[in-house]
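Deviation from plan, reported transparently: adenosine monophosphate complex.
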Amino acid sequence: MTPTGSAREARTRPVIDLHTHSAVSDGTETPTELVAAAARAGVDVLALTDHDTVAGWAEAAAAARTHGVTLVRGIEISCAWHHSSIHLLGYLTDADDAALARELARARDSRSTRLERMVALMAADGIPLGYDEVLAQVGPGATPGRPHIADALIANGTIRHRDEAFRSWLGDDSPYYVGHYAPDPVRAVELVRAAGGVPVIAHPFTRTRTGALDDALVERMREAGLVGLEAYHRDHGPAEVARAEALAGRLGLLLTGSSDYHGEGKRNRLAENTTKPEVLEAIEAASSGVTEVLRP
Ligand code: AMP
Ligand code: FE
Ligand code: FE
Ligand code: ZN
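Because the crystal trials were delayed, the predicted structure below was used instead.
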């Protein structure tokens, strides 16, 4: 006889996905839809980590209660380092921490100006797009990003998927690329720690323009309070995973795995990579406790 109860209850090891996006940044689902999708996909513990904002936390918390999902509230901070972008996950930060909130607000403001400049450069080159069309793709209070330019090009029939826009016009090497204000990675680690949160480098060895994340920078981030590396991520092949594991072993860092799900905006599927329960416990223990993991 099969015991009653959901498939989730029947498993002994919970499924933990610690990196996802909602339409409060560049995901395509509302926080409520994202949590519902996670429950359907068998995710027991979900982290919402929208780019440079905590604006989705409250809605995700309500949905997590409804769907019986455990919620880890987080952010993904874009950091600037030698003309390339390094992403820092911050788990369980205090949303009321003034210094971190100020830094995130500054980044979001600068992201808007930057998108307007990118659209102007593209329009001058004959790509059919207006900034108003891009704004129409950014949800209320959401962090604007390059994917919203792609969404505007989908809406006006120029392309079919975000990927096409990134290959043709939006990539880091594109002549239309414009940067935005972002803190340097060491300062971002300090800000997350000062806000009681737990910093983990997102997809550390994703190939970037300059391939800038060298071991020396990770060491400096470690000295500033870095706690982990997101080793298990679709942007990493076996060589990148091995490098993350070796570095974590040497520096005493945790290793996480996550999907980096963006709804229909990217091919990443929920729970395609996961984090071990003991690693989640260590993340929780490293936080100040001001922002708790929300259990249903
Ligand atoms: P931004 O934050 O504005 O610099 O834009 C970077 C974001 O674009 C990343 O967080 C990804 O979610 C997204 N992105 C990067 N490359 C692609 C791609 N090929 N297809 C879809 N989304 C992408
Ligand atoms: Fe994104
Ligand atoms: Fe990222
Ligand atoms: Zn992400």
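The longest strand covers residues 70-81. We consider this an acceptable substitute for the interim report.
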